[in-house]
């Protein structure tokens, strides 16, 4: 969600402007991931981008707006990856496994900022931005919920609880995953689905 206060975009070459904006978002994604919102300063981001700090305001009105844009971009990438991975799959459990693999590969390959699923947002974030961040997260979770709704679960398995277990197993794998470890992101995702299926699938 971009602020209307951003100025100068119409005067710039659109292609160059968009490329620079995406570069800033990529750099901010990495720094917010590595340092957190509080410790990743606009100066850090500007230095990495090779521009003056003041030039960032040409693209984003504030650090908060940049953070919201990073989160929005991350969830859009994640949602697009999941849709592409699942669109040709008909079996619900296979569809969920493909979604899990796309989710894990996106997160663990550091294609998106993992703090997008942190249970608490930065305290400095305004109420308006907080609502936007929660909306972004709900939009992505709706993609997964639609898949979960196709699955036949045991009668004693609560569907919302199942959804939350799925998302938690995907989101927090980044806390212990090691690129040099024995399991790939796809293997982690498939293993999580095997556990969930073994516990929750309706065998009738």
Notes on the protein architecture:
There is one protein chain. The protein is mostly helical and 204 residues long. It has two domains: 1-60, Arc Repressor Mutant, subunit A (Orthogonal Bundle), CATH 1.10.10; 64-203, Tetracycline Repressor, domain 2 (Orthogonal Bundle). 64% of the residues lie in helices and 0% in strands. It has eight helices and no strands. It has helices at residues 14-39, 42-49, 53-56, 63-86, 92-108, 127-148, 159-171, 185-200. Helix 5 runs antiparallel to helix 8 (185-200) and helix 6 crosses helix 7.
Question: Can you describe this structure in just a few lines?
Answer:
By secondary structure, this protein is mainly α.
The N- to C-terminal Cα distance equals 46 Å
CATH superfamily of the largest domain: Tetracycline Repressor, domain 2
Number of strands: 0
Strand content: under 5%
Please estimate the helix content. 55-70%
List keywords for this structure.
single chain, 204 residues, mainly alpha, Arc Repressor Mutant, subunit A, Tetracycline Repressor, domain 2, 2 domains
What's the structural blueprint in terms of helices and strands?
Elements: H1 14-39, H2 42-49, H3 53-56, H4 63-86, H5 92-108, H6 127-148, H7 159-171, H8 185-200
Helix pairs in contact: 1-2, 1-4, 4-5, 4-6, 5-8, 6-7, 7-8
